[in-house]
Amino acid sequence: MCQELGDFDMMVDYIEEAGGTALCALDGTGCDERSIKYLEKMKGKTSAELQGEIVRMEGMEGDSMTEELRGWLSTRKKLVRRLLTSKDGREEL
Fold first, then answer.
1. Integer angstrom CA distances of residue 37 from 9, 30, 31, 42, 53
2. Is CB count within 10 Å lower at the N or C end of the chain?
3. Rounded Cα–Cα distance for residues 80 and 76 (Å)
4. How far apart are CA 41 and CA 43, in angstroms?
5. Contact 57, 73 (CB under 8 A)
6. Residue among 65, 67, 81, 63 at smallest CA distance from 22
7. For 28-55, what is each residue's pLDDT tens digit?
8. In terms of Cα–Cα distance, which of 90, 56, 62 is closest to 76?
9. What Rg do the C-alpha atoms of the chain give, in angstroms?
10. Are 53 and 43 in contact (CB under 8 A)?
11. pLDDT digits (tens, 9 = 90+) for 68-81
């Protein structure tokens, strides 16, 4: 399974996508306080700004960081991607 899905984040992404679920919904359901604050901050951004955030965060991926920070980065990227999808009209907020 590790060869097909790669790392832990890819496995979680696959499970969430295949099951049509997410641990943190864009309306704040199932989110921790930190994620809710981040969502509120990002909701006002344009699609171009959100795309810029994704590029910025992808640039941070190679840096050495603690496992906790790596997890928070992954969470933020997922939230921004889902916000971007919702702004493109493919998902309801």
1. 22, 13, 10, 9, 16
2. N
3. 6
4. 6
5. yes
6. 81
7. 888 889 999 999 999 999 999 999 999 9
8. 56
9. 13
10. no
11. 888 889 889 989 99
Q: Is the pTM of this model over 0.70?
A: yes
Contact, 80 vs 57, CB < 8 A? Answer: yes
Please state, as a whole number, how many other Cβ atoms lie within 10 Å of the Cβ of residue 55. Answer: 9
> Are 83 and 50 a contacting pair, CB within 8 Å?
yes
Long-range contacts of 74-77 (CB under 8 A, 24+ apart): 74/9, 75/24, 75/35, 76/38
Q: How far apart are CA 81 and CA 15, in angstroms?
A: 16
Q: Locate 20 and state its tokens.
A: 């049509």
Residue 50's Cβ-count burial label (10 Å; 0-12, 13-18, 19+) is buried
